Amino acid sequence: MRRAAPAIGLIFLSPWVGEFLLGSSPIQHLPAALVLLVPLYGGGALLIREIARRFGRGYPAIVLLGAAYGVIEAGLLDQSMFNPAFRNEGSDAGFATLANQALGYVAGHAVWSIAIPIAMVELMAADRSAAPWLGRKGLAAAAILYAVGCATVFSFIYAEYRFLASPVQLAGAFAAAILLAVAAFAVGSGGRTPVAGVGVRPWLVGVGAFAVSGVFAARPEHGWSGLIIGCVLLSASWIIVRRWSRSPWWSVRHRMALVTGALLTCAWLGFVVTWLLRPEDRVAWFGNGLFALIAIALAAVMARRTRSHAGGGSGRSVPPPGGEPSDVGR
């Protein structure tokens, strides 16, 4: 059980962050999560993490595989990218608005449903952060769990909406998912190249992550402005974090701050989503408060584990055998 604990934790943490902390699902829906969300989110996150680690890949690959996961979910399973029922009433259905909506779905899943839960569990299981958690049978079980989740979500959503995207839309989503998966194995294949520069304190990384992820979440929903802001923020964040993570001063504490900033954005965003979707639901508001407190507690656990892993010294992460001091930029 101790060896399986990180995998089990990730299976439940992924849907909790991506749906419940975010406010998309209220606390009353927790029982349904065992049937609908744990296999899809948890199985997908665990499968992505194990594949990336088995092939010696770091977080750039995890994020890109998470983006492929987002395309599969929003484009092929619940088809929220294409189904008009998922849009706000009176929404402009122009290209920019639809593209901005698709960007939100894909980036949201890549960051909050996949990358953040994986990083949280790895920070709390620091002694096994870069090693595979599952054997061959466990990896096969994770793949089966994810496949069951895909089939279950598709069948439930189709039964409710009776909507099926056009063959061109489905083919486009499938092709995009394949391209993102291929990119995940191409990125960082040249190894780490340390980049010199002035160090940034971990708390500044956390504040920056909180601010940037908050602006991304609050960007305009309609028109070109939201799409442009989202693309600029994602591109700049990718470049800056990859550059910083290759620098000699980057440590496990910087990674922890980055994860915590994005996690706390998800916590306050949950209150906004409840205000928009179910403002009179007192139980949902209670759930938001409870989940926010749990997020803060998990951030405290990550901080304590990070200090222990860093030995209370300079904060430089301890490299795994044969590994690098930090794999964020790999």
Plain-language structure description:
This protein has 330 residues and is mainly α. It is built from 11 helices and no strands. It has helices at 5-21, 30-33, 37-54, 59-77, 95-124, 136-161, 167-186, 202-218, 223-245, 252-277, 282-310. The radius of gyration is 19 Å and the shape is globular. Mean pLDDT is 88; it is low at 312-326.
Describe the SSE topology.
Blueprint: H1 5-21, H2 30-33, H3 37-54, H4 59-77, H5 95-124, H6 136-161, H7 167-186, H8 202-218, H9 223-245, H10 252-277, H11 282-310
Helix pairs in contact: 1-3, 1-5, 1-10, 3-4, 3-5, 3-6, 4-5, 4-7, 5-9, 5-10, 8-9, 8-10, 10-11
| SSE succession | HHHHHHHHHHH
State the helicity in percent bands.
55-70%
Number of strands: 0
Work out the strand percent: under 5%
SS class: mainly alpha
Low-confidence stretches: 312-326
Largest sheet: none
Discrete helix count? 11
How far apart lie the N and C ends?
Answer: 30 Å
CA-atom Rg in angstroms: 19 Å
Shape designation: globular
Quaternary structure classification: single chain
Task: Summarize it.
69% of the residues lie in helices and 0% in strands.
